[in-house]
Amino acid sequence: MKLLLHICCGPCATYPVKTLRERGHNVHGFFYNPNIHPLAEHNLRLDSARKLLEIEAIPATICNEYDVEEYFRLVAYRESNRCVACYHLRLSRAAREASAQGFDAFSTSLLVSPYQKHDLIREVGQSAGLQYGIEFYYEDFRPGWPQTRQLSREMGLYRQKYCGCIYSEKERFHSPGSSQARIERHGRNQTDRAR
């Protein structure tokens, strides 16, 4: 099968690429991730994806647009349901690209992560596939999660510390009891006293 694989980052793509190729599929990479914030982080992940694609000699389509404004328009005031908008934005673009280029199916490296919402990815992917007349290939790659860590270390790929969006960065690094939160509360208390 000629398959377009949406790549969220280099490390997450290692195991799906390996598995899909072992099954005889012809894999073509696709990078489009306007949810990743800030731009410096986006570029680190793009460089990591490019490095993997070069090591594995995988042809790819790289979308150079950084449509962060479109991402924020979709999630504004829907932050608690932001993942569905994020999946929709990226998988719809992948489905459109796969259909336009004559692929048999499309999939995503997001399916390797135990931190992603697999039922939602499958639902959004199938919906995007119906919209663009192309099959969404679902496979639960999570059993290969430990291998992604090993393979990415062996390849020297940049490994990120959060999902990608500014909200996941906050969830990963900020907690109400953190020293930064205490500093901010202290500053507000000082301001309140000065009033």
UniProtKB/TrEMBL annotation:
EC number: 1.17.99.6
Pathway given in the UniProt record: tRNA modification; tRNA-queuosine biosynthesis
Keywords per UniProt: 4Fe-4S, Disulfide bond, Iron, Iron-sulfur, Metal-binding, Oxidoreductase, Queuosine biosynthesis, Redox-active center, tRNA processing
Binding of [4Fe-4S] cluster, residues: C8, C9, C83, C86
Record keyword tRNA processing present: yes
Bias (Basic and acidic residues) ranges: 182-195
Pfam families for the chain: QueH
GO biological process, one term: tRNA queuosine(34) biosynthetic process
Catalytic activity: epoxyqueuosine(34) in tRNA + AH2 = queuosine(34) in tRNA + A + H2O
GO molecular function: 4 iron, 4 sulfur cluster binding; epoxyqueuosine reductase activity; metal ion binding
Job description of the protein: Catalyzes the conversion of epoxyqueuosine (oQ) to queuosine (Q), which is a hypermodified base found in the wobble positions of tRNA(Asp), tRNA(Asn), tRNA(His) and tRNA(Tyr).
Family note: Belongs to the QueH family.
Protein name as annotated: Epoxyqueuosine reductase QueH
Taxonomy of the source species: Bacteria, Pseudomonadati, Candidatus Hydrogenedentota, Candidatus Abyssobacteria
Gene of this entry: queH
